[in-house]
Amino acid sequence: MVNSSGVPAHIGYIVDGNRRWAKKQGLQAYEGHQRGYEVLESIVKSTFSRGVKYVSAYVFSTENWQRSENEVNKILSLFMRALTKDLDKLGEVQIRFAGAREQISEALQGKMRTLEQKTAHFNDKVFVICFNYGGKQELVDAFKKMLHDSVAADAITPALIDNYVYAPDVPPVDMIVRTSGESRLSNFMLWRSAYSELLFLEKYWPDMTDSDVEMCLDEFAKRTRRFGE
After folding, report:
1. Residue 32 three-state SS
2. Most buried among 66, 177, 187, 221, using CB within 10 Å?
3. Apex CA 34: angle with CA 30 and CA 36, to 5°?
4. Whole-prediction pTM value?
């Protein structure tokens, strides 16, 4: 899905390298997450300003709970700060959340629901925050919902599954950008990435700038997408 100007409708960012950036700077891991958090706001705004309608960010995976309790708590505190204060800085942007909510505290879930309801009427820009997200878990949850709805086996199609994944109205990802030099999806948007263009950057997420967004869009414009044809 690409708009008439050749700009992708949906870019997904795999936010990676915060801890390594901090270590390189001689800082604590939390300071890397703090810096990455600040950069995320700038990159999301920059991406929207260039005509991209949907921006998704992989900020906390289902596997990240395995990190130290101190690090997880620091990340959760940043998430609460975003929900209660900083996401308003994005302006007229619809906020959506993708991910399993069972492990998330009721306090955070309540803030998430409030923010989604508060911003639901904004349709020109949509920011999808992938928190406690895992591509495999997304499909498991989708199949469970289908079983709950007594969907017949012969009724299951790709189009039907589209309706059962998290935030079902969000389209496939046109381009996935990952920082930190790693060349893998790490369980991000498995269903929506079937025909995504992939771009792997060597720099750590905290080093991302406005010019990097421009470079990503220029790279996307150079590619020919055939969708299997």
Report:
1. helix
2. 177
3. 115
4. 0.94
Q: Which two tokens stand for residue 94?
A: 């619809």
Digitized pLDDT (tens) for each residue of the chain, 229 residues in all: 555 458 999 999 999 999 999 999 999 999 999 999 999 999 999 999 999 999 999 999 999 999 999 999 999 999 999 999 999 999 999 999 999 998 899 999 999 999 999 999 999 999 999 999 999 999 999 999 999 999 999 999 999 999 999 999 999 999 999 999 999 999 999 999 999 999 999 999 999 999 999 999 999 999 877 766 6
Give buried/exposed letters for 9-23 (b at 16+ CB in 10 A, else e).
bbbbbbbbbbbbbbe
> Which of 7, 12, 5, 15 minimizes the C-alpha distance to 196?
12
Burial 131-141 (b: 16+ CB within 10 A, else e): bbbbbebbeeb
Which residues are catalytic, by number? Answer: 16, 64
Residues contacting residue 89 through CB under 8 Å, at least 6 positions apart: 41
Distance CA 217, CA 229 (A): 23
Q: Which of 30, 119, 124 is nearest to 83 (CA)?
A: 119
As a residue count, the chain comes to 229
Domains of the chain: 10-219 (3.40.1180.10)
